[in-house]
Amino acid sequence: MKYESQGIAKMYFIAAIALFVGQILFGVTMGLQYVMGDFLFPEIPFNAARMVHTNLLIVWLLFGFMGSAYFLVPEEAERELYAPWLAKLMFWIFLVAGGLTILGYLLVPYARLAELTMNDLLPTMGREFLEQPTITKIGIVIVALAFVFNIGMTVLTGRKTVINLVLLTGLVGLAVFFLFSFYNPDNLVLDKYFWWFVVHLWVEGVWELIMASLLAYVLIKVTGVDREVIEKWLYIIIAMALISGLVGMGHHFFWIGAPAYWQWLGSVFSALEPIPFFMMTLFAFSVVNKRRRDHPNKAAVLWALGTAVMAFLGAGVWGFLHTLAPINYYTHGTQITAAHGHMAFYGAYVMVVLTMISYSMPLMRGKKAANVTAQKLEIRSFWMMTLSMVAITLLLTAAGTMQVYLQRYSAEPLPFMIVQDKLAIFYWLREVAGLIFLSGLFLYIYSFFAKGKEVEFIAEQAE
Amino acid sequence: MNTDDLQLKRATSSALLSLLNLTALPVIGFIGLLYVYSKTKPNTIDRYYAVVGIKTSLLAGIALLLVTLLVILLGGFESPLTWVYVTSYFVIVHASFILFATWTLTRSWTGEKLKRQILSK
Amino acid sequence: MPTPITNIEAIEPKLLPGDLAIWLFIFMELLVFGIFFIIYAVVRIQNIELFNHYQLTLNRELGAANTLLLITSSYFVVRAVHAIKADNIKNCIYWLYGALAGGAGFLILKSWEYVDKFSAGINLSTNTFYMFYLSLTMFHFLHVILGMVILFAIAIKAKRGAYSAQNHLGVETGASYWHMVDLVWIILFPLVYIIR
After folding, report:
1. How far is CA B70 from CA A60, B64, B66, B85, in A?
2. Which residue in A43, A236, B81, B102 is a FRET match for A93, CA 20 to 30 A apart?
3. What is the reported pLDDT for A147?
4. What are the domain boundaries of chain B?
């Protein structure tokens, strides 16, 4: 760690991991509710659990992105953070606002929450993933603006590298596109457009820029490959992500009442969306193959490679699987979508944050890498979480295929709930995989506290 | 170009053709691989990658086409379980082959062989 | 055992003019257009009468003029590359401006064509043929604009003395992209305007 203010990342990462645990706990709860409908009812009904599961994911990933930016930007810009106090203040504001919102979801009925937070003054609630009360949304905007200002001033008054400029672009986009969540037109089709402007332009647009720059940063650090080579890759990946991702948004407009030409535009452009993810895999593989040194932090290298592979699988392959309009006609909103969602979020965004944590945490604790035992445990937790996520994805894919066939394709289609009954075996197995994931996560957390032999330094200073 | 450069170029072409055979240009990529193979000599880096490419392609052909076809024939076209199996199997196995070919390609860029003996003998 | 290569570019030293990165990018772009063209062809076969009927409403003369403009401008770009290789910066800039003028002419004619169509009440939803006609040509239109931005940036850099006979990678890179824009139009024009 070269700059003192980088240490702020630590509190963000700790909060991120804590919320991650919450997300997974609600995940396994819901997984059980799939097969035991009245589990924990009426305390935690399925719809509330689902809202908490998805909202916690977004919130902890934002904590992760912010922490990563606070760690990365000072080092790239070669100066201390512009306003460390602001970063600390925003952390507490965000944590308290996030915590209160989640408690609101759990403790009062959603309609009552809307009343309490005076949603009728500026109605923005009630839409999937954007369920937050309006005041929370305003809080998010304030936190995001303060954060972008802090990072932006650091970058603009310091050394500008391709990595921190790309990261900054991604973060500005993240803040700007969230503003669409305040517009809530009465026309349902129009509403869906604006809803997708937030959701799609985040996960299939600007978040990809954030992910690519974080990955590039860690890869430069752990492999010692020339910055120039990595920057060229970054340009191509980003160009491809934007070309395919922007018009690729059309794949959400197939069946919402939008004009039919979106079926063509959406299919063609979103069919290209795997390309930037594939290029990230190619890029990560090639720099690891050309590495100039073996970094003592083996776990971080594994996480980086894992991110590249799993993002390609989850976002690229599983996205392509159901993105063409004629196929999506059958698969839309089935368990196939759930399979894609799980692996894409885990592979692209969860793993890239964990990669940053894995690389930076030891540095913030005054070491170059975690000790041998800790790394061994961390690597084991990597495999437990990653493989169980692969299992969850495959099981949901299988369930989804069955669902499509029985409910939509066969000559005598069955009703939704009858089909769900027939999928129980897949859901049970998915729940087992989910529990393994949870144990992997606990092992991951334990690895931070494990004591053991320190790794030997193979001289050679990092870049 | 001297021989070493030419060999390296052929080695990377083989790896690229093997990847293309799995993705954008099935069959055409394989024919290209056979052509590159015909130009190589034993115990060289380009022969090595041509062999890896050809074996990958053949194995992928068996694993993806033959196995899938057999499952459909045995399971029956009208059974949902056939499609459950075929979808999950095809996607994951196909993706694994693509990942292997991608790794091989990046390995060929370094001019060295794969670290472990996979599909090269 | 051959020596390891440290850089991708080192593998193919003189095969492609310009930066390898732009070629990857060009490859991707051609892939996008290629997929679009194939789909167009397939859908056309399924709706052959509709396509033949509405194809006649397109302005072929303007399309042909635009083809000439782009080909000429591509030639100017070639001259610009030759000029910089001969260390003649001034001529290089003139040729680049010439190429930009060709691109601008294309944009003007194309906009005229669009105004004509839009004022006749035609839009993406009118029918499948117009959907393809408009989305394909507009997507290409955006590429002409991007190509012009690139050429303009190169002209400015050349003016500042960034390029010479020894160092002209930037000019070649921009030229390669511009040729791609031209090439796509040369396929697009007969495909959408002429072939029956």
Report:
1. 46, 10, 6, 12
2. A43
3. 97
4. 3-109
